[in-house]
Amino acid sequence: MTGDRATDPEPEKTEPAGVRGRRGGFDGQGLRADLRGAVPDASLALLATGLIFGWLYVRVENGTSATTQVMPMLADADEFWMYWLCQAFGWSGLLWAYITIVFGLLRSGPRPKWRRLPAARLEKWHRTTSLTTIALMFLHAFLFFAELIRDNEENLPWGSRVFTAFVDVFVPGGYATGTGRVAILLGLIAFYLAIPLGLAFYLRHATGSRTWRALHRFIVVVYVLSVWHTLLYGTNVWYDGSFRTLVWALQMPVAALLLLRLLEPARPAERLRLRGPGRESRPLRLTYRLAGRLAVVATVLGLLAVVVSGVDGGRTPDGASPGLWPEQWVIWAGLLALTLAATGVAYRLRRSAAAPPHAAARRSRPGADADSPADGPADGPADSPLRGSAESLADSLPDSPLDSPAGQDAEAR
């Protein structure tokens, strides 16, 4: 969000479609600048991956690896080095996803006076760590793909083993056995969502800054799916234990930052108000936004209960594994709901940007809400269920790190 909370952000300036078109649809210059800026960050990530790989390797060699308790055939660290490197990239990818989501929440949440990190620096770090996270996720999947080709348990010819490995690793739902049927599907959905949602910033000239910012808020879903994938399939956290509990505990700061972001939003349009800027009643929107905040409160309390009780869903070495849940159809249904919500948000904002000049003038008058539904009948009733639910889901997710087109362009340069 913008600067101090004492001053409300200015209403967003919507660029005419013709201007956006002349500036180009994709900000390649900004992406190249961020890729150059991500070199130190990516180098640090590779160093962290190397350290994690060394730690995993030593534990395999001395017989203390949790993974070899689950899969004893992997006890030869030299033979299965690609698998262990795959695990190392998975853990560094989760670490960088954690870092980038924290940067995003710090940037978009309330700005206490004691905070010393400049906003522009947080914005830059959020973008570069996002790019690094996507690269780490890809390398995690690619090394698993390479290991399946190398291992070739079914003694397939070269072409067939490459195709089979590709389907197992990169096609959602392609992995057909064991816990991987669900866990790998979750990981792939997280990866494939991270690319458009993470890179939406560089398409802001084509979509408009309000649209890309609203879509980028859904990026928190990527992080949730990544943690879920880890807890479900990570062999280092397969069994109950202190390390698995630690992974759960580390989610509490993220949930707390998200809750703070929702309880004290800097943008006036996101505050809990029963009436809009024109004094129109909008109880449905208030209900959805309040429900989002209560859901985050419940999440924080749930995480606290898991950490205190130690009941975190892990397996026991000598006990029966719990039944696999959810089924794939539940995940696909959730993805469909997410897609419909994101599409509804994008559609509403695109129609809002194409509103006639008199509607834009009403939005920009003193005291008007920057995101208020001032587009008249073209957008339908302000409190229609479909529109309200899509908006509220977007508002309940963390805001993107940049506020204004001018600020975005300046930082990209």
Could you give the topology of this structure?
Elements: H1 17-23, H2 28-61, H3 66-70, H4 81-108, H5 119-151, H6 158-170, H7 180-199, H8 204-207, H9 209-216, H10 219-233, H11 242-249, H12 251-263, H13 283-309, H14 328-353, H15 357-364, H16 385-395, H17 405-412
Helix pairs in contact: 2-4, 2-5, 4-5, 4-10, 4-12, 5-6, 5-7, 7-10, 9-14, 11-13, 12-13, 13-16, 14-16
The largest sheet, given as strand count, sense and whether it forms a barrel, is: none
The figure for the number of domains is 1
Listing every helix as H and every strand as E from the N terminus to the C terminus, the arrangement reads HHHHHHHHHHHHHHHHH
Q: In terms of structural class, how would the helical and strand content be classed?
A: mainly alpha
Span from first to last CA?
A: 20 Å
Mean pLDDT: 80
Computed CA radius of gyration, to the nearest angstrom: 23 Å
Strand content: under 5%
Could you estimate the helical fraction of the residues in percent? 55-70%
Number of separate helices? 17
Low-confidence segments: 1-22, 363-396, 398-413
Q: Based on the structure, what is the oligomeric state of the protein chains? A: single chain
